[in-house]
Specification:
- The chain has seven helices and five strands, in the order αααααβαββββα.
- With 194 residues, it is of the alpha+beta class.
- A five-stranded antiparallel beta sheet has the order 1-5-4-3-2, with helices on both faces.
- The longest helix is centred in the middle third of the chain and has 20 residues, at 76-95.
- The chain starts with 16 loop residues before the first helix and ends in a 10-residue tail after the last helix.
């Protein structure tokens, strides 16, 4: 999907693939970077942009082997530097997006091992299509190019980690999604007693 293919106006209240593509295109138009970088990053679709937000400039988990055209480009360091800058700006825009709506907090308490598993996250697949990514004490639930939920986690005086704020978009307004992801996601260890 290119910016020319986007339906206008964009749906309000959602961080949709179309909105992410729009933000990405705006960044490319306003950022200063070497011209030889653009061919490697200009045709990103919603999957590339989602992976850039979730995994950073490598666009996949750091422990996965990857072999990309960028790795053999003569200017690969500059390409990765540019992608890192774009990733940071996109994550910041998601964090500070004005459409987040408060919702009731999911009651959980995690020890240090469970919190580490939450921060590590997992890669979604056809059986569990929702997943999370982490950015500065905030966790985001995403699926198929949509960013759907945001929740803030803080350590309590008892040493356990708790959700202290929870938000949703208009796309996924059911409160159960956070609980479902925490219960049924592919975590290294269980996050919720079943």
């Amino acid at each position: 999907m290119n910016i020319q293919d986007l339906p206008l106006p964009l749906k309000r209240g959602e961080i949709s693939p179309e909105l992410l593509i729009t933000w990405y295109a705006e960044l490319l138009d306003h950022m200063v970077y070497p011209a030889d970088v653009r061919p490697y990053i200009e045709d990103y679709d919603e999957w590339n942009i989602q992976n850039l937000i979730v995994w950073g400039e490598n666009m996949m988990p750091s422990d996965w082997p990857h072999d990309r055209d960028i790795d053999v480009a003569p200017n690969c360091e500059e390409i990765y530097h540019t992608l890192k800058r774009i990733s940071h700006v996109l994550r910041t825009r998601v964090c500070h997006w004005s459409g987040w709506k408060s919702e009731p907090i999911t009651e959980v308490a995690w020890d240090a091992r469970q919190y580490a598993a939450l921060k590590k996250g997992y890669h979604p697949d056809m059986d569990m299509r929702f997943a999370t990514y982490h950015e500065r004490c905030n966790f985001y639930i995403y699926r198929s190019g949509y960013i759907l939920k945001k929740f803030h986690v803080k350590r309590g005086t008892d040493g356990l980690w708790y959700i202290t704020k929870q938000y949703t978009t208009a796309k996924e307004s059911t409160e159960h999604l956070v609980s479902d992801v925490l219960n049924y996601g592919y975590w290294d260890i269980p996050l919720v007693k079943r």
